[in-house]
Amino acid sequence: MSVDKLDQDPDWLSTVLATSETIGPKSILLITQSDRFEMLEEALRRANYSLIGCFFLDQPKEDLEQGQLSATNLMEFTLRSTVDEVLIYLPEAVDQVSDWIRGFETMGIMVHVTIPGYEYPSSSKREASIAGIPVTSYAPTFHKTSDLVLKRIIDIAGALVGLVICGLVGVVLYPLIRRDGGPAVFTQDRVGRNGRIFKFYKYRSMYMDAEERKKELMDQNTMEGGMFKMDNDPRITPIGAFIRKTSLDELPQFYNVLRGDMSLVGTRPPTKQEFLEYTPAQKRRLSFKPGITGLWQVSGRSEITKFEDVVALDVEYIQDWRITDDIKILLKTLKVVAFGKGAK
Asked: Where is the Bacterial sugar transferase domain positioned along the sequence (predicted)?
């Protein structure tokens, strides 16, 4: 199959996104009428979608069952849940449809629409087929499938090399990090693509009570908004300062990349607490797989003091992404690491 054919084939698109952009079935939110639910549920199941929630337009609020959504909680549910795509399947358009699409796109979520005669004013759309259903798909941007395939290939190759380096370096780092009696590898739940929770790995650079002490240090946060950053952080161990400056603490994340939780290049994954404070526009930075490095890290991150500026860089990366961007960022990252300009 040619590259052009690969980019245009919706079946290939679904396959690639299911295997390289997520782990397990893609999560989909359904907006329809109750008499169409069983047919759509079966079609989505056969197409390896996981139905995370449904909103029946014709069902009174008082008759809602568990798992069903209402007009009042639809957007809030989407913001706080793992939603990869939305399918709107209706016999005719209703006033809210344009607002729904706009709201979902703000969060970076692709919306598939099957409504006879309906047209949403967007320059970013394509005709496709989802679970055998002809749809018009809307998204803030559509990435080339061939680029996504190549990105995953580079991720796997890079992760394998990185894990070899991680193992070799670990022989020296393990006993040094464990001097205070704690584990060498720090694990934490982080939020990945579209709200997925995954186990995040780093070589431990802080004392064991770092998370508890973080609450006491919030007034010294130098980052305005939904991220914590502090100069001369007292929670960092002596060996931790070295591995952060040299970025050696990031090496275990190559395992996250190999698993598919992360990519070599992307946006930095937030903690669960940070994610709970996200606005719809901020969630868009999670519409792409998180990365070990990214545009923010190579754009003078020590000078960036507002989280909104981080979000702006992340959205710029996602909106204009090409595989060549990843290669440029990786080369810049090597330069940053070589000159010892890692995290403080």
From this structure: 151-337
